Amino acid sequence: MTDPSDDFYRMKRLPPYVIAEVNAMRAAARAGGEDIIDLGMGNPDLPPPEHVIEKLIEVTRKPDAHGYSQSKGIPGLRRAQANYYGRRFGVELNPETEVVVTMGSKEGLASLATAITAPGDVVLAPNPSYPIHTFGFIIAGATIRAVPTTPDEAYFESLERAMAFTVPRPSVLVVNYPSNPTAETVDLAFYERLVAFAKEQGLWILSDLAYSELYYDGNPTPSILQVKGGKDVAVEFTSLSKTYSMAGWRIGFAVGNAKLIAAMTRVKSYLDYGAFTPIQAAACAALNGPQDIVEKNRVLYHKRRDVLVDSFARAGWDIPSPRASMFAWAPLPPALAHLGSLEFSKQMLTEAKVAVAPGVGYGENGEGFVRIALVENEQRLRQAARNVKRYLASMGVNTPAQGAG
To answer: Is residue 403 scored above 50 in pLDDT?
Structure first.
């Protein structure tokens, strides 16, 4: 059936959202009463800190809190984010000129793409990647040239080729570490090399650091703005969604280069009046208040990671252990790789009652993988492993003799 929206120019540049197909199947199964273990969407299953909720309630009760807010964010929240960067990364930010509040990092990326992209511009974006990293720019009229996600020597070779052989020359590079979906990480030396490359080539860098606080094994994730001169070429996006379990609140930030922040702020002033003021006040409480939830969430996802990797391995499916983020990037079991990620995800849903996200939904280089979100508790993860073991056995895949639990 033809989608009537395909008549419009920008709709023709947006392919069907592959992940939505599996999401629709999951919703239908649950509506039919099936118990689906949902490891598909990165939707935190825990509440925000109690003091954040209390602040939301307190400010909501104020009669003057219900009018239009500020598009670029209330001053207190911009100061709170600047203070966070000072504490966490040792980076000094001017809250007036180098910080803007966004309605989640997705809206921020899309608004900046609208602000700085002309039709026909070429943007370098990772493949596989979170869809907004490419489609935010496609909607704005740009053309995407894909680069790898793996931060090795081949990555920089691909950047060199892209700059040498692409017409017009690329103007923007999108990076995302810890990566969604691949969970790859980088060190500060990588960013130092990247900033030097961007300055040499005249590139803007947009860094998505949404998973900054979900790192494991004692290796804190760096910010590109820690690099000397990083603010000359880079803007970085962060979010409260995962760090404070506030995904539905839609609060994020863009910080860094003042020229890019000014352009983004100007576009946003035409598009929105900012998030509801009580939500912004509560976000201040999250950033300025007790930070024990940050470590608590990190420990929780770390434990879930270990349970997932261990129990799925004993079920017959070896999954690399992610060093950061709330996702595992899992190669399809070799005996079932011929199915492709979409068909495998559908069978996982119908036969194992486990929802995962097909890798092809994150770009063609995601084929052969699925993304697994650590958004169910340890008991449910072990149940998922038992279901997977039965599914693999039904497909004739030899699984280890011991139980998956």
So the answer is: no
CB 120 within 8 A of CB 145: no
* Whether residue 178 has a cis bond before it, omega within 30° of 0: yes
239 DSSP β-pair partners: 252
Mean pLDDT over residues 326-340, rounded?
96
Task: Please spell the DSSP secondary structure of 240-263, one letter per residue.
Answer: STTTTT-GGG--EEEEE-HHHHHH
What pLDDT, on the 0 to 100 scale, is given for residue 25?
Answer: 85
Write the pLDDT tens digit of every residue in 201-212.
999 999 999 999
Hey, what are 324's tokens? 């950061």
Phi, psi of 33, deg, nearest 5:
95, 5
HSE of 5, CA atoms in CB hemisphere, 13 A: 6
Q: CATH says 50-288 is which class?
A: alpha beta
Give me the residue spans of the domains in the chain. Answer: 4-47+293-394, 50-288
Contact (CB, 8 A) for 178 and 325: yes
Query: Which residues pair with residue 146 across a beta bridge?
Result: 125
β-strands 122-126, 143-147 pairing: parallel
Per CATH, is 4-47+293-394 categorized as 3.40.50.1980?
no
Q: Which ranges of 48-97 does DSSP label H, i.e. alpha helix?
A: 50-60, 75-89
The model's pTM is 0.92
Neighbouring-strand partners of residue 147: 126
- Cβ(397)–Cβ(160) below 8 Å: no
Q: Which residues contact 227 (CB under 8 A, 6 or more apart)?
A: 188, 191, 192, 195
Q: Which amino acid is at 71?
A: S
**CA angle 137-140-142, nearest 5°?**
60
**Residue 156's Cα: distance from chain center in Å?**
22
Q: What is the pLDDT of residues 79-122, one digit of tens each?
A: 999 999 999 999 999 999 999 999 988 888 999 999 999 999 99
